[in-house]
Amino acid sequence: MAHRLTTIKAADGRDLGVAQWGDPDGTAVLALHGTPGSRFGRPPDEDGLTRAGLRVVTYDRPGYGVSDRRPGRRVVDCVEDVAAIADALGIDRFAVTGGSGGGPHVLAVAARLGDRVTAAECRVGAAPFDAEDLDWWAGMDPENVREFGWAVEGEQVLQPNLARQAEADLARIAKDPSKILSDDWQLADADRDKLARPDVQRVFVEDMRSAYAAGVWGWVDDDLAFVTGWGFSLDEIKVPVTVRYGSQDVLVPAGHGAWLASHVPGATVVVHTEGGHLSDPDTRIEELRALVAAG
Fold this sequence. Notes:
Layout: E1 2-9, E2 15-22, E3 27-32, H1 46-51, E4 54-59, H2 78-88, E5 94-99, H3 102-112, E6 117-123, H4 142-153, H5 155-175, H6 189-195, H7 198-211, H8 217-226, E7 241-246, H9 254-263, E8 268-272, H10 284-294
Parallel strand pairs: 3-4, 3-5, 5-6, 6-7, 7-8
Antiparallel strand pairs: 1-2, 2-4
Helix pairs in contact: 4-5, 5-8
Protein backbone atom coordinates (compact mmCIF):
# COMPACT_ATOMS: atom_id res chain seq x y z
CA MET A 1 0.00 0.00 0.00
CA ALA A 2 1.27 3.44 -0.87
CA HIS A 3 -1.57 5.96 -1.05
CA ARG A 4 0.40 9.12 -1.71
CA LEU A 5 -2.45 11.56 -1.20
CA THR A 6 -5.83 11.58 0.46
CA THR A 7 -7.38 14.93 1.31
CA ILE A 8 -9.14 15.05 4.67
CA LYS A 9 -11.08 17.93 6.18
CA ALA A 10 -9.96 19.32 9.52
CA ALA A 11 -12.57 20.25 12.10
CA ASP A 12 -12.54 23.87 10.93
CA GLY A 13 -12.80 23.00 7.23
CA ARG A 14 -9.12 23.20 6.28
CA ASP A 15 -7.72 20.61 3.87
CA LEU A 16 -5.10 18.19 5.20
CA GLY A 17 -2.92 16.14 2.85
CA VAL A 18 -2.51 12.55 4.10
CA ALA A 19 -0.50 9.57 2.82
CA GLN A 20 -0.38 5.92 3.89
CA TRP A 21 2.46 3.43 3.61
CA GLY A 22 2.77 -0.29 4.32
CA ASP A 23 0.08 -2.79 5.22
CA PRO A 24 -3.49 -1.37 4.91
CA ASP A 25 -4.66 -3.88 7.50
CA GLY A 26 -1.66 -3.45 9.77
CA THR A 27 -1.18 -1.78 13.13
CA ALA A 28 -1.64 1.96 12.73
CA VAL A 29 1.28 4.30 13.39
CA LEU A 30 0.85 8.03 12.82
CA ALA A 31 4.22 9.53 11.88
CA LEU A 32 4.61 13.30 12.32
CA HIS A 33 7.24 14.82 10.03
CA GLY A 34 10.17 17.03 10.89
CA THR A 35 10.80 20.70 10.14
CA PRO A 36 10.65 21.35 7.26
CA GLY A 37 8.87 18.25 6.01
CA SER A 38 5.78 16.72 4.51
CA ARG A 39 3.68 13.59 4.19
CA PHE A 40 6.53 12.04 2.16
CA GLY A 41 8.67 11.66 5.27
CA ARG A 42 8.73 7.91 5.97
CA PRO A 43 11.19 5.00 6.25
CA PRO A 44 12.82 4.28 2.86
CA ASP A 45 12.01 0.56 3.02
CA GLU A 46 8.32 0.65 2.15
CA ASP A 47 8.15 -3.10 1.52
CA GLY A 48 9.65 -3.61 4.99
CA LEU A 49 6.71 -1.74 6.51
CA THR A 50 4.33 -4.16 4.82
CA ARG A 51 6.28 -7.20 5.97
CA ALA A 52 6.26 -5.82 9.52
CA GLY A 53 2.47 -5.43 9.44
CA LEU A 54 2.61 -1.66 9.90
CA ARG A 55 0.17 0.88 8.50
CA VAL A 56 2.09 4.16 8.62
CA VAL A 57 0.02 7.32 8.19
CA THR A 58 1.74 10.62 7.45
CA TYR A 59 0.32 14.08 6.80
CA ASP A 60 1.33 17.58 5.80
CA ARG A 61 1.15 19.89 8.79
CA PRO A 62 -0.72 23.13 7.97
CA GLY A 63 1.14 25.23 5.40
CA TYR A 64 3.17 22.28 4.07
CA GLY A 65 2.44 20.26 0.92
CA VAL A 66 -1.26 20.47 0.11
CA SER A 67 -2.47 21.27 3.64
CA ASP A 68 -4.02 24.68 4.16
CA ARG A 69 -2.11 27.07 6.35
CA ARG A 70 -3.23 27.78 9.93
CA PRO A 71 -1.53 31.07 10.90
CA GLY A 72 -0.60 31.43 14.54
CA ARG A 73 -0.87 27.73 15.27
CA ARG A 74 0.71 26.34 18.42
CA VAL A 75 2.27 22.92 18.84
CA VAL A 76 -0.85 21.67 20.65
CA ASP A 77 -3.07 22.59 17.71
CA CYS A 78 -1.88 19.50 15.84
CA VAL A 79 -3.96 17.37 18.20
CA GLU A 80 -7.31 18.14 16.59
CA ASP A 81 -5.86 17.53 13.11
CA VAL A 82 -4.46 14.15 14.14
CA ALA A 83 -7.83 13.23 15.65
CA ALA A 84 -9.63 14.27 12.44
CA ILE A 85 -7.28 12.16 10.32
CA ALA A 86 -7.68 9.10 12.55
CA ASP A 87 -11.46 9.49 12.50
CA ALA A 88 -11.59 9.86 8.72
CA LEU A 89 -9.45 6.75 8.22
CA GLY A 90 -11.42 4.70 10.74
CA ILE A 91 -8.50 4.37 13.14
CA ASP A 92 -9.58 4.16 16.77
CA ARG A 93 -6.25 3.46 18.49
CA PHE A 94 -2.76 4.11 17.18
CA ALA A 95 0.88 4.61 18.06
CA VAL A 96 2.47 7.94 17.23
CA THR A 97 6.04 8.81 16.32
CA GLY A 98 7.87 11.91 15.19
CA GLY A 99 11.40 13.17 14.84
CA SER A 100 13.01 16.59 15.12
CA GLY A 101 10.23 19.17 14.64
CA GLY A 102 7.72 16.33 14.82
CA GLY A 103 8.87 15.45 18.34
CA PRO A 104 7.07 18.23 20.24
CA HIS A 105 3.92 17.50 18.21
CA VAL A 106 4.12 13.83 19.22
CA LEU A 107 4.25 14.87 22.87
CA ALA A 108 1.17 17.05 22.36
CA VAL A 109 -0.74 14.12 20.88
CA ALA A 110 0.39 11.87 23.72
CA ALA A 111 -0.77 14.46 26.24
CA ARG A 112 -4.17 15.25 24.75
CA LEU A 113 -5.20 12.03 22.96
CA GLY A 114 -4.13 9.59 25.63
CA ASP A 115 -7.36 7.63 25.30
CA ARG A 116 -6.44 6.80 21.70
CA VAL A 117 -2.63 6.67 21.76
CA THR A 118 -1.18 3.26 22.62
CA ALA A 119 2.43 4.47 22.77
CA ALA A 120 4.48 7.43 21.60
CA GLU A 121 8.03 7.96 20.36
CA CYS A 122 9.80 11.33 20.38
CA ARG A 123 12.98 11.12 18.27
CA VAL A 124 15.58 13.91 18.51
CA GLY A 125 12.79 16.27 19.50
CA ALA A 126 13.38 19.80 20.71
CA ALA A 127 12.68 20.82 24.29
CA PRO A 128 10.44 23.81 25.07
CA PHE A 129 12.07 27.15 24.31
CA ASP A 130 11.45 28.31 27.88
CA ALA A 131 12.64 25.07 29.50
CA GLU A 132 14.17 25.67 32.91
CA ASP A 133 17.72 24.44 33.56
CA LEU A 134 18.47 24.11 29.83
CA ASP A 135 20.68 26.22 27.59
CA TRP A 136 18.44 25.80 24.53
CA TRP A 137 21.16 26.92 22.11
CA ALA A 138 24.13 24.97 23.51
CA GLY A 139 25.73 22.61 20.98
CA MET A 140 23.45 23.74 18.13
CA ASP A 141 24.85 24.17 14.62
CA PRO A 142 25.31 27.86 13.67
CA GLU A 143 22.87 27.40 10.77
CA ASN A 144 20.10 26.39 13.18
CA VAL A 145 21.05 29.13 15.63
CA ARG A 146 20.63 31.63 12.82
CA GLU A 147 17.26 30.19 11.79
CA PHE A 148 15.77 30.27 15.26
CA GLY A 149 17.21 33.73 15.77
CA TRP A 150 15.05 34.82 12.84
CA ALA A 151 12.06 33.11 14.48
CA VAL A 152 12.60 35.04 17.70
CA GLU A 153 12.55 38.25 15.65
CA GLY A 154 9.15 37.31 14.22
CA GLU A 155 7.39 36.29 11.03
CA GLN A 156 8.38 39.41 9.10
CA VAL A 157 12.06 38.46 9.48
CA LEU A 158 11.68 34.68 9.38
CA GLN A 159 9.57 34.27 6.22
CA PRO A 160 11.80 36.00 3.65
CA ASN A 161 14.91 34.33 5.02
CA LEU A 162 13.34 30.86 4.90
CA ALA A 163 11.99 31.55 1.41
CA ARG A 164 15.50 32.35 0.23
CA GLN A 165 16.85 29.21 1.92
CA ALA A 166 14.14 27.00 0.40
CA GLU A 167 14.90 28.36 -3.07
CA ALA A 168 18.57 27.51 -2.58
CA ASP A 169 17.68 24.02 -1.29
CA LEU A 170 15.54 23.22 -4.33
CA ALA A 171 18.15 24.55 -6.77
CA ARG A 172 20.89 22.53 -5.08
CA ILE A 173 19.06 19.18 -5.13
CA ALA A 174 17.90 19.76 -8.71
CA LYS A 175 21.56 19.96 -9.67
CA ASP A 176 22.77 17.17 -7.37
CA PRO A 177 20.24 15.07 -5.37
CA SER A 178 23.03 13.98 -3.02
CA LYS A 179 23.28 17.55 -1.69
CA ILE A 180 20.34 17.31 0.69
CA LEU A 181 22.00 19.80 3.01
CA SER A 182 24.54 22.42 2.08
CA ASP A 183 28.16 22.05 3.04
CA ASP A 184 27.66 24.83 5.62
CA TRP A 185 26.22 22.34 8.12
CA GLN A 186 28.65 20.83 10.66
CA LEU A 187 26.93 17.44 10.77
CA ALA A 188 28.01 14.38 12.71
CA ASP A 189 29.76 11.70 10.66
CA ALA A 190 26.85 9.35 11.32
CA ASP A 191 24.46 11.79 9.64
CA ARG A 192 26.74 12.34 6.65
CA ASP A 193 26.96 8.56 6.18
CA LYS A 194 23.17 8.27 6.09
CA LEU A 195 22.78 11.19 3.69
CA ALA A 196 25.17 9.42 1.30
CA ARG A 197 22.67 6.55 0.86
CA PRO A 198 20.61 6.68 -2.37
CA ASP A 199 17.47 5.41 -0.60
CA VAL A 200 17.68 8.17 2.00
CA GLN A 201 18.35 10.78 -0.70
CA ARG A 202 15.28 9.65 -2.63
CA VAL A 203 12.99 10.12 0.36
CA PHE A 204 14.54 13.44 1.34
CA VAL A 205 14.21 14.86 -2.19
CA GLU A 206 10.53 13.89 -2.36
CA ASP A 207 9.98 15.27 1.13
CA MET A 208 11.65 18.62 0.48
CA ARG A 209 9.91 19.21 -2.84
CA SER A 210 6.55 18.48 -1.26
CA ALA A 211 7.31 20.55 1.84
CA TYR A 212 7.88 23.68 -0.24
CA ALA A 213 5.04 23.08 -2.73
CA ALA A 214 2.98 25.96 -1.32
CA GLY A 215 5.89 28.10 -0.19
CA VAL A 216 7.49 28.10 3.25
CA TRP A 217 4.52 28.94 5.47
CA GLY A 218 4.50 25.53 7.15
CA TRP A 219 8.16 25.97 8.04
CA VAL A 220 7.54 29.50 9.24
CA ASP A 221 4.66 28.46 11.48
CA ASP A 222 6.58 25.48 12.87
CA ASP A 223 9.52 27.67 13.88
CA LEU A 224 7.28 30.31 15.43
CA ALA A 225 5.46 27.61 17.41
CA PHE A 226 8.74 26.23 18.74
CA VAL A 227 9.89 29.55 20.20
CA THR A 228 6.57 30.26 21.93
CA GLY A 229 4.49 28.30 24.43
CA TRP A 230 3.51 24.83 23.26
CA GLY A 231 0.02 25.05 24.78
CA PHE A 232 0.13 21.91 26.93
CA SER A 233 2.09 20.47 29.85
CA LEU A 234 4.29 17.40 29.72
CA ASP A 235 2.74 16.43 33.06
CA GLU A 236 -0.46 15.60 31.15
CA ILE A 237 1.18 12.60 29.46
CA LYS A 238 -0.02 9.25 30.83
CA VAL A 239 0.85 6.90 27.95
CA PRO A 240 4.17 5.08 27.37
CA VAL A 241 6.70 7.39 25.71
CA THR A 242 10.12 6.53 24.30
CA VAL A 243 12.55 9.44 24.07
CA ARG A 244 15.37 8.83 21.58
CA TYR A 245 18.27 11.13 20.88
CA GLY A 246 21.80 11.11 19.51
CA SER A 247 24.82 12.23 21.50
CA GLN A 248 26.42 13.73 18.36
CA ASP A 249 23.35 15.65 17.17
CA VAL A 250 24.04 19.30 16.25
CA LEU A 251 20.57 20.09 14.88
CA VAL A 252 18.67 19.31 18.08
CA PRO A 253 21.53 18.92 20.57
CA ALA A 254 21.65 16.08 23.06
CA GLY A 255 20.84 18.46 25.90
CA HIS A 256 17.29 18.70 24.56
CA GLY A 257 16.86 14.95 24.59
CA ALA A 258 18.29 14.68 28.08
CA TRP A 259 15.93 17.41 29.30
CA LEU A 260 12.90 15.67 27.79
CA ALA A 261 14.05 12.34 29.19
CA SER A 262 13.94 13.78 32.70
CA HIS A 263 10.64 15.66 32.26
CA VAL A 264 8.38 13.31 30.28
CA PRO A 265 6.63 11.18 32.91
CA GLY A 266 7.89 7.58 32.96
CA ALA A 267 9.82 7.93 29.71
CA THR A 268 11.85 5.07 28.31
CA VAL A 269 15.12 6.66 27.21
CA VAL A 270 17.32 5.47 24.35
CA VAL A 271 20.58 7.34 23.76
CA HIS A 272 22.49 6.61 20.56
CA THR A 273 26.00 7.37 21.74
CA GLU A 274 27.50 7.54 18.24
CA GLY A 275 24.33 8.82 16.62
CA GLY A 276 23.45 12.20 15.21
CA HIS A 277 20.11 13.60 14.08
CA LEU A 278 18.97 11.08 11.47
CA SER A 279 17.38 7.70 12.08
CA ASP A 280 19.19 4.58 10.90
CA PRO A 281 17.17 3.15 7.97
CA ASP A 282 18.50 -0.33 8.75
CA THR A 283 16.96 -0.37 12.23
CA ARG A 284 14.01 2.00 11.84
CA ILE A 285 11.36 -0.61 11.14
CA GLU A 286 12.42 -2.66 14.15
CA GLU A 287 12.15 0.50 16.26
CA LEU A 288 8.59 0.97 14.96
CA ARG A 289 7.76 -2.62 15.81
CA ALA A 290 9.06 -2.03 19.32
CA LEU A 291 6.92 1.09 19.54
CA VAL A 292 3.68 -0.71 18.74
CA ALA A 293 4.66 -3.56 21.09
CA ALA A 294 5.09 -1.02 23.91
CA GLY A 295 1.38 -0.26 23.78
